[in-house]
Design brief:
The chain is of the alpha+beta class and 87 residues long. It is 54% helix and 20% strand. It has four helices and three strands; from the N terminus they run E-H-H-E-E-H-H. Strand 2 and strand 3 form a beta hairpin. The two termini are 40 Å apart.
């Protein structure tokens, strides 16, 4: 769940906020004078985001994923038994 909190509240409730992020899949947007300045999220969520960004930076992999999606939409599926591990 995403919650927006002012920086004064984030400072005051830092440890409980960290526990909520770690245990309850909470995410916080911290604001200063009503403007977003930071995000508090779990390390696992951060890691997933970084890996996703790395995937999108890999142009070859991105092309392959797009091609695979296109093939799936067109019904051009290959049975798993016919896929080699030498690619």
């Amino acid at each position: 769940m995403l919650e927006v909190i002012p920086i004064t509240q984030a400072r005051k409730n830092f440890l409980p906020s960290i526990e909520r992020v770690a245990n309850e899949l909470y995410e916080f947007v911290v604001t200063k004078h009503g403007k977003p300045v930071a995000v508090i999220l779990s390390y696992s969520e951060y890691s997933r985001m970084v890996e996703t960004l790395k995937t999108f930076e890999d142009k070859k992999l991105t092309r392959e994923v797009k091609e695979g999606l296109r093939q799936a939409e067109q019904g051009e599926l290959i049975p798993l038994d016919n896929v080699s591990n030498n690619d």
